[in-house]
Design a protein that fits this description.
The protein is built from six helices and six strands. The chain is an alpha/beta fold. It has a domain of about 100 residues: 3-Layer(aba) Sandwich (Glutaredoxin), CATH 3.40.30.10. A six-stranded mixed beta sheet has the order 1-4-3-2-5-6, sandwiched between helices. Helix 3 links the parallel strand 3 and strand 4. Helix 1 runs parallel beside helix 4.
Length: about 150
């Protein structure tokens, strides 16, 4: 069953604020430094999204114990299409429904121009990579996690 991302988590990341609602001034260090949030921009009508999603699901399953959270940001035209896409690929993750202010804010915040795209952030919202898809395709999950964690600690 999918969970809809709550407004607070996704909007705080979209606006660059921390969990307390204040501007994110964190250095990436602290209790949440090792946690990662992957925003997955995709749509059911996109063949490339269908091709890449199984690899992303496998990555997230392997990284389950590593405090990696996935949030689908749907670019579909209808909610039903998003839910069908999630069911088809076994996506058990947070989701931002299509054609909402939240989806638009995240697309604008991360400059999404093509899909599928994976943007990797710290839990505080600091962008570590806007090419998560390319990195996942080229590297093993361990190497991706190591590189993203190292970037988050800087």
């Amino acid at each position: 069953m999918c969970k809809i991302a709550n407004f607070y988590v996704t909007m705080s990341t979209a606006q660059g604020v921390g969990g307390d609602g204040k501007a994110d001034k964190s250095s990436g260090k602290g209790s949440n430094a090792s946690g990662l949030l992957l925003f997955y921009f995709a749509a059911s009508w996109c063949t490339s999204s269908h091709d890449f999603t199984p690899r992303l699901v496998e990555f997230c399953q392997k990284a389950k114990e590593e405090r990696v959270r996935l949030c689908l940001v749907s670019l579909d035209m209808e909610r039903r299409a998003m839910y069908d896409f999630m069911d088809e690929h076994g996506l058990d993750c947070l989701a931002v429904e299509p054609r909402t202010d939240m989806a638009g804010a995240l697309i604008a915040r991360f400059g999404v121009r093509t899909i599928p795209q994976v943007v990797v952030t710290t839990l505080e919202g600091r962008v570590l990579s806007d090419d998560g898809k390319g990195q996942i395709k080229q590297k093993g999950w361990n190497q991706c996690l190591e590189e993203w964690r190292a970037a988050g600690a800087r």
